[in-house]
Amino acid sequence: MFNRPDLGFAPGSQRQDSDAPIRQTDSDAAVARLSAAQKQYLNDPFVKYLVPRAQFQQPRPPLINIGTYVRTKGIDDLVEEWLSRAEKAGTQCQITGPHKEVIRSYIELDFPEITTKKAMSIKKSRELLQILGSADEVKLANGGAALHAPRYHLLAADLRGDPVDTLQEPLTTSSDISPLPILSPEYPTILLFECVLAYMTVEASSRLLRWFVDYFSANNGDEDAAKSKGPLGCIVYEMFGLNDSFGRVMLNNLRARNVSLPGAEPLTTIDSLISRFLDTGFHSARALTLKQIRRSYVESNELARISRLEFLDETEELDLVLAHYAISWGILIPGPADREIWSNWGLQEKDHSEEEHQF
Fold first, then answer.
1. No. of H helices and E strands in the chain?
2. CB of 123 closer than 8 Å to CB of 140
3. Which of 142, 193, 297, 308 has its CA 20 to 30 A from that of 288?
4. What is residue 18's predicted lDDT score, i.e. its pLDDT?
5. What are phi and psi of 226, to 5 degrees?
6. Residue 59, burial from CB neighbour count under 10 angstroms (0-12, 13-18, 19+)
7. CB-side neighbour CA atoms (13 Å) of 94
């Protein structure tokens, strides 16, 4: 799972300071998730341990809470479906969720400033440590910027650099932690990029995706090796379609905060989101706006529950915002025997009437 691209520059460098606004968006998203959890849109008992002074944070307005809910609902449903299929296939996979015994490893990469804070939060929280393992099983590394537990690995890495230089050694080689690499191509694996690829060029993000595709499909001409590879799924949440009037306002507001989106501006259509997966070697892909997910991919009972939480009088603005964010997903299935289980992985449209779109 990948949250934000780390830059890998020494503390105090000019380049690192220039990316402080991007790091701030990580804090903004965490506070938005905290607000949605406090308002009972989401069930997240752990976010309060990862937001500084959580008890003093002000709730976000309904529009942000609903957007956070739809984003989370879409991603959670995709992950839940992936885990269920791994369970059906009788194999562990490399992502997390409620199916604890299905999980082989969960790997998170982020800015070193953020991984350091998160590692410290974990070490100080009895509740978080109980989830990850005993105190002696949860170990800091890399001067406190990394943390390792039996099934969880928190690492700082530069996702904008060449993955051969930045990811290959920590992810694909054995270590004193395990004789196997922490990321094994033999297991079903999901890559999760939440507002990450938008902050790097399309060339850099395509190179990153291609590296994972190559790692999970490489067989050196050995058919048996190809059969042993697990499927690779990828979920991307990001802004898109910023070439209209609303998008230009969004970009100008971000530029006022010294934030640019070199990876989002070229992606103007749903088809462009899908093409990025296909162009980097994934076998199939789909994409939906958050507006579509809200209207057609949320269960009727959830629509009713959400509509009762807060009054929303900005439905047109909500639709406009949600239409400029999308969740896209792609899948690579190296082994033919896996196609029956994995080929139609994705979000499933729900059957409900138009009157149920209350929130």
1. 15, 8
2. yes
3. 308
4. 76
5. -65, -40
6. middle
7. 26
Residue 71 counted as an annotated binding residue = yes
Give dist(CA 263, CA 343) in Å, integer: 28
159 is in an annotated binding site: yes
299 carries a ligand binding annotation: no
pLDDT above 60 for 132: yes
The amino acid at 162: D
Rounded Cα distance between 279 and 209, Å, is 10
The sheet carrying 189-194 orders its strands as 189-194, 232-239, 325-332, 284-289
Give the Å distances, CA to CA, from 36 to 40, 72, 193: 6, 10, 20
pLDDT of residue 99: 60
Token pair for residue 337? Answer: 């025997």
Work out the burial of residue 68: count CB atoms within 10 Å of its CB; fewer than 13 is exposed, 13-18 middle, 19 or more buried.
buried
Is 338 assigned a ligand-binding role in the annotation?
no
CB 290 within 8 A of CB 325: yes
Backbone angles phi, psi at 289, to 5 degrees: -75, 160
Residue corresponding to tokens 């650099």: 161
DSSP β-bridge partners for residue 106: 152
pTM: 0.91
Report in angstroms the alpha-carbon separations of 114 from 19, 23, 25, 296, 348.
12, 8, 11, 35, 34
Judge residue 235's burial from the number of C-beta atoms within 10 Å of its C-beta, 0-12 exposed, 13-18 middle, 19 or more buried. buried
Report residue 69 as tokens. Answer: 């809910």
Instruction: Considering only CA atoms, give the Rg of the chain.
Output: 20
Q: How many CA atoms lie within 13 A of 20 on its CB side?
A: 6
Which residue's structure tokens are 């050694």?
169
pLDDT digits (tens, 9 = 90+) for 105-115: 999 998 888 89
Residues 219-240 have pLDDT tens digits of: 655 556 556 789 999 999 999 9
Closest C-alpha among 185, 190, 201, 195 to residue 276: 201
User: CB–CB of 192/75 below 8 Å?
Assistant: yes
